[in-house]
Every structure is written in structure tokens, then in C-alpha cells.
Amino acid sequence: MDVWNPNTLPSNDNVPGNSYAFVVDVGAQPWFMSKGAMIAYYGQMAFEPLAVTSMGALVAARFSSPLYARDWVVANGRGKLVLGDRGFDINSYDLEEGNLTIRASNLLAFETGLQLKQSIVPGFLTLLGTGKFLASSNGPVMFAEPPLRVDPEALVGWADCPSPCHHYDAGWMQGFLGAAQRVVLGAQTGEERQFDFTGTGTVLIQSSEAVREDPHLVQHIESETVGLGTPQLQQLHRSLGARLTQQ
Fold first, then answer.
1. Membrane-spanning residues where (predicted)?
2. Measured distance CA(227)–CA(236) in Å, rounded
């Protein structure tokens, strides 16, 4: 049985033989970290919520996503910080003047050299610049080049390529067009609906279709309904009510 201490733990790497735990060497710069990701640490550290941190100027310059701001803290101090995420695999990635969009529920932490913005794709965040970030996945991650289509639940993110488009199976489309009198907004599988990637870049795909529920998606959808009039809102209400009845 291995027993770890500050001298034997690695720096900025997975715990040896353990893909579920990652060690961050905090000191030269603070880190942005998702709440709940810390499982242990050595040294002197402070974890400050973004709304009340003493580093407000840093947050204003580097973190631009109001929907997710309450779920993040700034880790500052000196020592070794051990992170985990529900027993999922954790990997580190390096961006160099890069542009990467990642599912918000998979992003665990990132260096303050990177800038975070809210993606136009619901449930995703975009990292820009140069630095290291940590992400979890349900199983190992596969890196693939476009053009390709991906099951939405298996998608972790994409780097240096255009945002994806939705692609629907022809059979599902025929059913949709022929179903004017019934609810057609139910969940689809990856065989019916995919994300379609084109251009150049890299797509990150986890080896599972298990996705963590993201409560912020409801807020995002609500913000998109501002321009709807009463008839459209009533129609949406009926459709959602029918779906709840079916479930």
C-alpha cells in the first residue's frame, strides 16, 4: 500500500497508479477550481468564492461566465492540492494560444493564465490563451479529427475548430414531420441526433454516454425565451406539460 506525503506526491500530475486523483502544485500562481473538486491538500491554502475573493481584478479579467460563477473558487497559497471528481478519470491539458470549448460539468480547474468565457452552446464553456487545465471524463478520452459526428452525451469538448451543428437521422426527421398532433420533444439517442464537426481541429470524446446533470441549462434556456410572445410561451408550456405527463 502506497502512503503519500508532500515529498512523494507528484507535481501537476495524476497520483501514480490512480487516474481518479490529480495533484496540483499551487504557488507560483493561483488556480480557478470548481467547488467540491478538492479532496485534500498539504500546505497553506485559501479557497475564496469568486463573489468575495480578494483577487477581484483577476476574476474580472479571467472569468466571464455569470451562470457558473457561483460554482467556482480561487485556490491561492502554497502547497499540493489533490483534486477528484466522482471517481471519474482526470486528465490535464495544455493550451498554447489555444481555443477550447468544454462541457461545463467536466471542467475541474484551470490556471489563471487562461481566460474562461461562456460558450453560445448551452452547457459548455470556452477557454482561451495559454496554460494548463484539468478535466474529468467518464472513462478515457479519445482525440479525433473532424469531419465526424459525435453522440452529444459522449462529447467532452473541441479545440481549434468551429462549433458543431446538429445532425438528425433521416428516420427521426420523417417522424418529426409526421407528428404534428403529438409531442416530439422527447430525448433522442446518439443514433438519432449527433453533433456534426467540420473543419480542422480536435474533438474530445469520452468512452461513455453518462453525463452529469447541469442545473444551469435551465437558466440558459430561460434566458433564451425572453423574446417569445404569449402564444409561443403557451405552446412551450403545453409541450413541456405533455412531456412531464409521459414521464
1. none
2. 13
